[in-house]
Design goal:
The complex is a heterodimer of chains A (about 475) and B (about 1050). Helix content of chain A is about 45%, strand content about 5%. With about 475 residues, chain A is mainly α. In chain A, the strands form two sheets. A two-stranded antiparallel ribbon of chain A has the order 1-4. In chain A, α2 (about 45-65) runs antiparallel to α3. Chain A is globular and about 105 Å long. The model of chain A has no long low-confidence stretch (mean pLDDT about 90). Chain B is mainly beta and about 1050 residues long. In chain B, about 15% of the residues lie in helices and about 45% in strands. Chain B has 16 helices and 52 strands. Chain B has a 22-stranded antiparallel beta barrel. A five-stranded mixed beta sheet of chain B has the order 10-15-16-13-14. In chain B, α6 runs antiparallel to α7. The chains are: A mainly alpha (about 475), B mainly beta (about 1050). At the A-B interface, α1, α2, α3 and α17 of A face α1, α2, β24, β25 and β26 of B.
């Protein structure tokens, strides 16, 4: 009897033990719960596209007109302030932004190479995805190589932590950019449907490649054989007939023209993406503006009087008070202030910031055509005059006269660069013209010219990178950490 | 071996069928083994005993009585007197006498009393048995809780501090961690803020880690990761602090910061005991910061304003004579009086405990309600504990520890993460006394512009208006079955769960700053954490040939933890009234959710060998597999070894008859700190607003996913190697005891973000870099200097000195920190870590006082005038710039001490505790603004420099026009770091009478006759007085250590500790 009771007790106990032991053996392999990693992502078209959104956001947060990436360029001749004594951290924020953008793109490119999408999308769509990825990556490297010279070339095959990273020669970086852009031109569509209108098109890729070629033709590589390539590529865009100038200069930056016919690719702005407000461009008398960026007074006052000046520069505020009463007594910048007054007073703007537009294509064509032919052809003159005519409201204006085939090659070239100066002002372009034409020291604001030297044509490799990777070298004129 | 087992486990997990088979096999083996045990042992050994008992039970009952006294002849009331093996017992009365009717003249009676050796006396037919109990200061029988078991205190080879429970309960206290302060050497306890239920920081033997966390592991009844906050102090039976590697290595990758072991109470054999207690405490702000009265402030500010004559300015006074006259008559606002009130703390306790020879139980309930000194601050805790053990059979014990707590915590903002503008503790003493609380319409007053803290929000509004509700529910359960397999061999299987639910809600209406900015601002934040632990402990304890005592402990343990959280933030409310009860009323809603899990699988073994009670050695080895480690480093191994020699057992010392105990100890071992959040070793894609972008060019952004973190497959725990040499002694028959330890700890593979080059695209990756050393000495001496018949004085002093040094910081020699929020000019590098230096260093300019009139020429060389502050030009290059910065303070104390005393006279008992922290600096940030003329309210401004009053550290008011005329070129270049000067660094050493209690216990037979065993009434004080040169609220604050211990030493105006007076009583039925 007693034994039987013991047996029953044992049975109950054993059930208890079983319950306790039954707690599962723990797993030591981790599976992330509330985030994903690059090795398990990019499995769908939408996931790949989310990498493009992030890659562009990295740039937007530094480069867009509504952030402070411009500080880096205030030493050109257009912006107020500036000092041609560059610190050892000059441009390090842009360096970081571009490489963060590249780091977003490379795993997506690798996933496309590995065909992680499989049969879920057509080859054509895969190619279009790859084309967008390589387009944005090329844009990143084009900025980096122009600003910093030889730069580390991080591709989808690179492990930037464990690999030995050195600076890749400028010429090789350009070859890499060219390959990316050629692929993009081949596979990007001529245009995107309305709901995707903000994406890069074939035309945008062509203009950027034309600019790459013309940059290779000028300093520092000075490979003049590339003028021909630049001319052909730009001519392609003109011949395509997809894009054209907005006829009224006061409407170039109007919101309804954000996605064409002139603007070909931009930093897109949206209602729910409030980055730094437009106040950085506004004088204090408008919407409590901060006036961080404005034109240099000499440059602004020298800007020829024409409808374009009123369209691109802010000369008076809402009360009609002139710029001479504002802080700095200099014209401010109107290009990025085409959103409504109401939005500006709400510290926001949904105006896009153009990166590529048709006027640029016309001017690139004119510059290359002139160089290839040893003087201005009628085609070159026609291209520039489209821009000048519009600037003058289609009436003759001695302050900004039309160009002619009678001009010398040199005079015509200078006139085209000057048109770029006026037409593309504050669109992140002037600095590149100054350095590729090596005219920085001649055109810089007089007060700071004495500080200009050839070392200013490249910015320093950031100190952090030099400190953490001894294989990197510093550009001349800058210090390296001990 | 571990890998094989883990793979085995994985296979089990995958194939459930296999596991079932495995379990069935285990079940069969277990059944047969246990059956054998039951039938074999029980029949062979126990059966005859049972027969004897049965026979004896037929014998006649007899009554035994007697008196129980101590060795000194004192009567001992409250001694448990029990017929052995039964629940038949009584307790001695106030005169020490007892009467007990036992079942037979052949039984044995057990006499037990805390602090005395238990005696067993066979009745042997006697009816009068007088007993003398001896105090057991060093008795062999005293056991100490060590990880996964207990050890005789005499057998210990490691450094373990036991905090006597009678010391913990001497003072009424809300929380266990606070009660540990000053009690134990090697344990540094700091109240990081004084808010009800606020944070306490506990550090065992210094700081080992920069980012991995320095919190000791808390183990409550075997369950790891417990919370000291939510434990009812009345439920504690013992507290042990494991300090050296020999003691902590048993916790492997979680042991590096020390381990606090807490065992909760169980009933004692005898009749059931009911404890009831109540106390009420009244709290006051211990010290007010001195603020000028309204009239003085107005006059001082006017005087300053009139010096604003630079740039051709013609100044006008801010305040009119009439206004000043009015304030002289009617006074102004004392903002500290406005936001501080008398706090009230009430504590209710009710417990029932008891035991029979088979079952022990304790049920304890506690309710704490605490309204703090800052208005609208409150903490409450309701807790219920049920502890139960039962001997189910001769060979199986069963036990359950269950605790439930509900806590609520709220306080106005004083924390760092809150906008500085509404930081009440900081703003109140900075608001000018000339400002009223409300305007004529009864709205909160907005600070007048132009002086004092006009960039901040009305302190009363900031304090009272936020609605905060934060209930936290905790359910802790731990079950065990203990199988007594054979003599000395037992297997304990435990399963425990810790469940925490936190539901935080707050709402800031438009009367608050945040609410106005956001048009109403509310949060609902819920978080749930569950942790399961299964420990399987095999213990073998046996003595061979009377001199070889071996204890073996083997453990297989697994822990799984999962956390779920969500946060909703609403702003832009149409109606203020609904607040967090209906966030749908918000126009803008941001939601977020999180989810993580982690697991640990561990194997551990320990052998403790004692030879002839003289020589002893312990070896432990633990292997931890943790999910949070990188793929290449899933397993960590933590060995330790220690030896001890009890010299007092050697004949040459025994003959001296001097030492009751003298033991030398040495230990060495490795422990880890796995302060890594889950998934840190994995590459991570980020998402959210920082990644979204309107890529398609629509009206709204498109979702972006970008690289946010890189994988580090090599990521592992921090490793601490510790050497300890110690000595325990006991003299004069146990009246003087002490422990001295020296230790050295080196922590390697510190978890830190390793900077990455910009071209990687991610700023840093968590990695194992860097190394830190801690060295220290700990001394604990206690004794009974005076013991007479009626009077006894017990005293204990502990002393801790710890020095730490940064040995390596990876690629850098120096890492700077900025400890402050906005509002103070501390730049980016004020606190820093530097190779070769200790934690907590401050970096800035040395303040040398005020330029005197006799230093006019020298002052002018720096562009200064007599009356201006003078700073050290370290490199003597004629200016004060970045190159002149140097170390100006250290926030970590050189040594700390505590002194406890217990004096008893008849029924009276007086206890008090002094604590002291020596050679420590605090950066008193609030002074930067309070002590400046531009906006200061401090009374020190009344002592400003003038040519007649040059012996001061307060700069003078210098006329602006006069200064201009001197045509000076300023050579002080501090930029935005101008706050970083030694002017604000103060010596924060202090001596504090932390607590004192006067109690009286009634133990008269009269009370006993009406059912009371004990009645104790007491009055008590906390933070009674502080001796310090520090001028802030309290030197015993640490600023926001949640940002890392390297930030210790900056007073950023946290909730000040209160002075408390408590009255209460405890009843025992």
């Amino acid at each position: 009897m007693k034994n039987r009771i013991y047996k029953i007790k044992n049975l109950i106990l054993m059930c208890g033990i079983l319950l306790l032991i039954n707690i599962r053996c723990v797993e030591l392999d981790e599976t992330a719960k509330d985030f994903t990693g690059p090795s398990t992502f990019y499995n769908s078209k939408q996931q790949v596209e989310s990498a493009f959104a992030s890659a562009m956001q990295r740039l937007y947060s530094e480069w867009s007109a509504y952030s402070y990436g411009h500080w880096n360029f205030e030493s050109d001749d257009q912006m107020y302030g500036g000092e041609l004594v560059f610190g050892d951290d000059q441009g390090s924020d842009l360096w970081g932004a571009h490489y963060r953008s590249i780091a977003d793109l490379n795993p997506a490119i690798k996933a496309l190479n590995d065909d992680r999408l499989g049969t879920s999308v057509s080859q054509e769509e895969k190619d279009a995805l790859m084309a967008q990825a390589r387009f944005i990556r090329a844009f990143n490297y084009f900025s980096l190589v122009r600003l910093f010279g030889d730069v580390p070339l991080i591709t989808e095959e690179t492990n930037p932590v464990t690999d030995e990273i050195t600076r890749t020669p400028t010429v090789d970086v350009y070859a890499f950019i060219e390959a990316d852009l050629l692929f993009a031109i081949q596979h990007l569509p001529d245009s995107w449907p309305g709901e995707n209108q903000g994406r890069p098109s074939k035309g945008a890729a062509k203009v950027i490649l034309a600019k790459v070629y013309i940059t290779i033709a000028t300093a520092p590589l000075n490979n003049t054989s590339y003028y021909q390539k630049a001319k052909d590529m730009a001519a392609d865009v003109l011949d395509d007939g997809i894009y054209s100038l907005v006829q009224d200069v006061s409407e170039v930056f109007a919101l309804q023209n954000s996605y064409g016919p002139e603007i070909m690719w931009s930093f897109n702005a949206a209602e729910d993406d409030v980055s730094t407000p437009p106040q950085i461009w506004l004088p204090g008398s408008m919407a409590d503006g901060w006036g961080d960026f404005k034109s240099d007074q000499v440059w602004g006052e020298a800007y020829p009087a024409q409808p374009r000046k009123d369209a691109y520069l802010l000369l008076e505020d809402w009360n009609g008070d002139p710029y001479t009463e504002w802080f700095g007594t200099t014209p401010y910048v109107k290009k990025f202030l085409y959103d409504s007054r109401e939005n500006q007073e709400r510290y926001r703007s949904i105006q896009n910031i153009p990166i590529v537009r048709y006027a640029d294509a016309l001017l690139l064509f004119a510059e290359a055509e002139n160089m290839v032919n040893g003087g201005p052809t009628q085609a070159a003159v026609d291209a520039v005059n489209q821009v000048i005519n519009r600037a003058n409201g289609y009436v003759p204006n001695p302050a900004d006269p039309l160009l002619t085939t009678a001009m010398t090659k040199t005079a015509f070239d200078a006139a085209v660069i000057q048109q770029r100066n006026l037409e593309l002002c504050f669109e992140f372009d002037r600095w590149y013209d100054l350095i590729r034409k090596r005219i920085l020291c001649d055109t810089a604001i007089p007060e700071i010219q004495q500080n200009c030297d050839d070392n200013d044509y490249l910015w320093p490799i950031p100190q952090t990178d030099l400190r953490l990777n001894p294989l990197l070298t510093q550009n001349p004129g800058y210090t390296a950490p001990e | 071996m571990e890998i094989i087992l883990s793979q085995f486990c994985r296979k089990l997990h995958v194939a459930r069928t296999v596991r079932k088979v495995f379990h069935s096999v285990l079940l069969l083996i277990g059944l047969s083994a246990l059956s054998w045990q039951t039938y074999g042992t029980t029949v062979a050994k126990h059966a005859p005993v049972r027969t004897t008992e049965n026979i004896e039970a037929k014998d006649a009952a007899i009554t035994v009585s007697g008196k129980i006294i101590s060795e000194k002849g004192d009567a001992l009331p409250g001694v448990n007197v029990l017929e052995k093996g039964t629940s038949n017992g009584t307790v001695s009365d106030a005169a020490g006498t007892y009467t007990l009717t036992v079942s037979s003249e052949n039984v044995t009676i057990t006499f037990s009393f805390i602090g005395y050796s238990t005696q067993e006396i066979a009745v042997g037919g006697r009816t009068v048995i007088d007993v003398t109990l001896t105090e057991d200061a060093t008795t062999l029988g005293e056991v100490v809780v060590v990880g996964y078991g207990v050890q005789r205190k005499s057998d210990l080879t490691g450094a373990i501090s036991s905090v006597p429970v009678n010391q913990l309960t001497q003072f009424p206290m809300a929380r266990v961690d606070q009660a540990l302060q000053g009690r134990s050497s090697g344990v540094y306890v700091l109240n990081t803020d004084g808010s009800p239920g606020g944070n306490t920081m506990v550090r065992v033997r210094g700081l080992n880690s920069i980012n991995g966390g320095n919190e000791p592991l808390v183990v409550i009844d075997g369950l790891q990761g417990g919370s000291l906050n939510s434990l009812n102090p009345n439920d504690i039976a013992s507290v042990e602090i494991l300090k050296d590697a020999s003691a902590t290595a048993i916790y492997g990758s979680r042991g590096a910061n020390g381990v606090i072991l807490i065992t909760t109470k169980l009933g004692k054999t005898g009749k059931p005991v009911i404890d009831a207690g109540y106390n009420i405490g009244f709290q006051k702000l211990a010290r007010k910061l001195p603020v000028m009265d309204a009239a003085s402030f107005a006059k001082t500010f006017n005087q300053y304003r009139m010096t604003d004559t630079g740039n051709g300015n013609i100044p006008t006074p801010e305040f009119t004579d009439q206004e000043i006259a009015n304030w002289e008559k009617n006074g102004g606002t004392d903002w500290q009086d406005v936001v501080y009130e008398t706090g009230i703390m009430q504590n209710f306790q009710l417990g029932i405990s008891g035991a029979t020879d088979k079952v022990k139980y304790l049920v304890s309930g506690n309710y704490l309600d605490h309204n703090g000194i800052l208005v609208n601050s409150q903490y409450s805790r309701a807790s219920l504990r049920v502890n139960l053990t039962a001997d189910i059979t001769k060979w199986v014990d069963f036990g359950l520890n269950y605790a439930f707590t509900k806590e609520t915590y709220k306080s106005p903002s004083f924390r760092e993460e809150v906008a500085f503008v509404s930081q009440v503790v900081n703003n109140a003493p900075r608001w000018a006394p000339t400002e009223p609380v409300y305007d004529e319409l009864g709205n909160y007053w907005v600070h007048s512009p132009g002086y004092a803290a006009n960039d901040t929000w009305n302190p009363l509004a900031s304090a009272v208006e936020p609605i905060i509700d934060n209930p936290i529910f905790k359910n802790n359960a731990n079950l065990f079955l203990n199988f007594k397999i054979a003599k000395g061999l037992s297997l304990m299987i435990t399963g425990g769960a810790l469940l925490t639910n936190n539901y935080f809600r707050d709402y800031y209406n438009s009367k608050t700053y945040a609410g106005l900015q956001n048009n109403g601002w509310g949060h609902v934040n819920s978080f749930q954490n569950e942790r399961f632990q299964n420990s399987n402990i095999l213990t073998y304890d046996n003595t061979f040939r009377d001199i070889h005592h071996i204890t073996f402990t083997g453990v297989i343990e697994q822990i799984y933890e999962e956390g779920l959280g969500s946060t909703i933030t609403g702003s832009n409310f149409l109606v203020d009234q609904l607040g967090f009860d209906n966030l749908a009323g918000a126009k803008s809603i941001v939601a977020n959710s999180t989810h993580y899990d982690r697991s640990i699988l561990s194997y551990m073994g320990r052998v403790n060998y004692v030879l002839a009670d003289k020589y002893m050695a312990t070896v432990t080895y633990r292997a931890d597999g943790s999910s949070v480690f990188g793929a290449e480093n899933k397993w960590g191994y933590f060995p330790s070894g220690s030896i001890a020699w009890r010299l007092s057992e050697e004949s040459f010392l025994k003959d001296l008859d001097l030492f009751t105990e003298l033991k030398l100890r040495a230990s060495y071992g490795k422990t880890g700190n796995q302060g890594i959040s889950p998934f840190q070793s994995q590459a991570r894609l980020g998402s959210g607003p920082d990644y979204n972008y309107p890529y398609n060019g629509g009206a709204a952004t498109d979702i972006g996913f970008g690289l946010a973190g890189l994988a580090n497959p090599n990521l592992k725990w921090e490793t601490t190697e510790q050497t300890d040499i110690g000595m325990d002694f006991s003299l004069f028959n146990g009246r003087l005891t002490g422990t001295i330890d020296w230790y050295k700890k080196v922590t390697d593979d510190l978890l830190m973000g390793r900077d990455l080059p910009g071209y990687v695209g991610v700023n840093s990756v968590l990695d194992n870099v860097g190394s830190i050393e801690n060295k220290g000495v700990e001394i604990l001496v206690s004794g009974d200097p005076i013991v007479t018949d009626n009077f006894r004085w017990n005293t204990s002093i502990n002393f801790t000195k710890n020095k730490n040094k940064v040995l390596d910081l990876g690629p850098d020699d120096r890492i700077g920190y900025r400890p402050s929020t906005g509002g103070y000019s501390l730049g980016t590098d004020f606190m820093f870590l530097q190779v070769g230096e200790s934690f907590g260093l401050m970096n800035g300019w040395k303040f040398l006082g005020i330029w005197g009139t006799d230093q006019d020429a020298e002052a002018r060389r720096y562009g200064q005038l007599p009356g201006d502050p003078r700073y050290l030009d370290l490199d003597n290059d004629g200016d004060v710039d970045t190159d002149d910065r140097t170390t100006i303070g250290n926030g970590y104390p050189e040594f700390t001490w505590g002194w406890t005393n217990q004096l008893s006279y008849k029924g009276f008992e007086l206890s008090f505790l002094f604590i002291g922290y020596q050679n420590v600096d605090l950066f008193n940030t609030i002074r930067i603004r309070r002590d400046s003329f531009w906006e200061g309210t401090s009374t020190v401004l009344l002592d400003a420099w003038t040519p007649q009053n040059q012996n001061t550290n307060v700069p003078g008011m210098i006329d602006g026009k006069y200064r201009e005329e001197q045509n000076l070129t300023n050579k002080i270049f501090m930029g935005n770091n101008s706050g970083a000067t030694s002017q604000w660094v103060e010596d924060a050493s202090f001596i504090k009478l932390k607590t004192a209690t006067l109690a009286y216990s009634f133990g008269s037979p009269k009370l006993q006759s009406i059912g009371f065993q004990k009645v104790r009434v007491f009055m008590s004080g906390t933070n009674i007085f502080t001796i310090t040169d520090y001028t802030g609220y309290d030197p015993e604050v640490a600023a926001f250590p949640q940002r890392g211990d390297a930030n210790i030493g900056v007073d950023l105006s946290v909730y000040p500790p209160a002075r408390t007076f408590t009255l209460g009583f405890d009843l025992t039925f």
